[in-house]
């Protein structure tokens, strides 16, 4: 039976309606694009060729050392919550260019992954060694994966038509008993974004709700919203942390939202901050700081580690 979505708040952007859905407990596009529309979007627009794709180049070469730090932090979090009795195996849903699985393989983990974009998949030169398949996670029979101890969704759930359904599917089909799911998603509709719209962007109406980008992102959660969503889906939250709140930069005078050309400088400042923690092995201090961001609902991206109740 179709879900009846109830809402009062609605935002219109790119010819889509984004609703604050009382039924689902978070913001999402309504009505959702069809599977065929999304397939055409991702096949024809989302991924560019290697020569033009700066994200691909950055992740492959990591000139700033940013992704290495992110992946080291992610692995540290995983090791805190995974039982030593479970095999070191990971399944990455939405493997992108394979960079995270490549990192995990170098750490001795058995890797598997699925990537729906044919363009991205074909750019992964070591896809067979990493166990990456081209396909969709909602067709598990075609993937024939071995159940894993850790399943990761790195900036994936915001793109899915039915994120709750997919979380339950991977739990049932691919997660070893006692295993964990790592979810990384944007932290949207947070207080700093609201302050930005009321101050720096007050007279720049076109940039209001700048984080909303359908049909790329279909779903939008804050920290509080995702905690409720995960609980409603039958999961227990083991860990919640956010990363650096990039919204602080425009609030301090570096408005990369209105002037994207200053974004690179803001990014490098954030990278330098993280490098200082990393180079001094001050992991506990960093975790305490970034967890405090999460407790106050700020931070650009959120990382949750969840497990079935």
How would you characterize the overall build of this protein?
By secondary structure, the chain is α/β, with parallel strands linked by helices. The protein has one domain (35-308): Vaccinia Virus protein VP39 (Rossmann fold). Helix content is 38%, strand content 22%. The protein is built from twelve helices and eleven strands. It has a seven-stranded mixed β-sheet, sandwiched between helices. Strands 1-2-3-9 form a four-stranded antiparallel β-sheet. A hairpin with a 2-residue loop joins strand 1 (7-13) and strand 2. The longest helix has 17 residues, at 263-279. It is globular, with a radius of gyration of 19 Å.
| Adjacency order of strands in the biggest sheet | 6-5-4-7-8-11-10
The helix count comes to 12
CATH architecture: 3-Layer(aba) Sandwich
| Number of E-type strands | 11
Report Rg.
19 Å
Please, what is the CATH homologous superfamily? Vaccinia Virus protein VP39
CATH topology: Rossmann fold
Mean pLDDT comes to 94
Number of domains: 1
Shape: globular
Would you state the CATH class?
Alpha Beta
Q: Estimate percent helicity.
A: 25-40%
